[in-house]
Amino acid sequence: MLRANLEALGINVDLDDGDLIASAVLITKIVKEDGSVVVGICDSDGMSWVEQLGLLAAAQQIIHSVGRFEEDE
Questions:
Q1: From what superkingdom does this record's organism come (predicted)?
Q2: Angle at the Cα of 64 from the Cα atoms of 60 and 65, rounded to 5 degrees
């Protein structure tokens, strides 16, 4: 099994001094060699399913919030 580097996809997290990423959930769209598409998910070591669901629910709220897709750059 290969490990993927996500830097090429432009995935970055802006942190302030002293900030610490405590946990993470990664959702991926994977195109298989035969052209089929699957969705994958992985999370931080030791993360419980309850924490995973909580982060996913919080992410949904962010995605659905007003102004999420406004261009500010």
A1: Bacteria
A2: 115
